[in-house]
């Protein structure tokens, strides 16, 4: 990898993918973003994306020069074949197999396949994603082995070398805050807290010290505890 390369970041508007976007802006000469519309119960994630991109380029001239196009891909079929709390009005809970009902089977495999196709067209070899084994080991499509298999599948299936970067794979939420601070200081932390969205219920009405959210769903609890742990250690 050298700074002349380009990268495509899977950017949802959540905290993790925003840290990954900042990570990529530090490392690549040109960085494009891709987001997926797939019938989410709440479109909040898609709404915050342009605001986050604007906030990031306002922070740094270098980042402004490097940040390129944003691609939104509609995958309505994903909602049609899913029956989860993310796409229907169902309770978020842990099902019998130990997975949250928010789990869309194989969602990241679909995302990577589309991201790979877009990257191929854009002559981009590096994909960056916020997948993490540490916090949600219940998501099999976020595991390191899955991502490595997808990298191989894309490389073989397109006859072009792809590298998938997952800078958050082995760190917890507190360490993700620490990484963000290391990359972009207090300004990046402020963007994470004010603009990014992770709450499963789409709640933007309640502001906490760790950001917006209902405060009760698994994503909010994870973010709140990670922020508290990072604050206590910093
Ligand atoms: Zn929540």
Describe this structure in words.
- Helix content is 47%, strand content 13%.
- The chain is built from 8 helices and 7 strands.
- The chain has helices spanning 15-27, 44-59, 61-66, 76-80, 107-121, 144-158, 173-195, 218-233, and strands spanning 6-10, 30-37, 67-74, 126-128, 163-165, 207-208, 211-212.
- The strands form 2 sheets. It has a 5-stranded parallel beta sheet with strand order 3-2-1-4-5, with helices on both faces. Strands 6-7 form a two-stranded antiparallel ribbon.
- A hairpin with a 2-residue loop joins strand 6 and strand 7 (211-212).
- The model has no long low-confidence stretch (mean pLDDT 89).
- Bound molecules: zinc ion (ZN).
- The site of zinc ion has 10 residues, from helix 8.
Structure characteristics:
8 helices; 7 strands; two-stranded antiparallel ribbon; binds zinc ion; Rossmann fold; 47% helix; 234 residues; alpha/beta
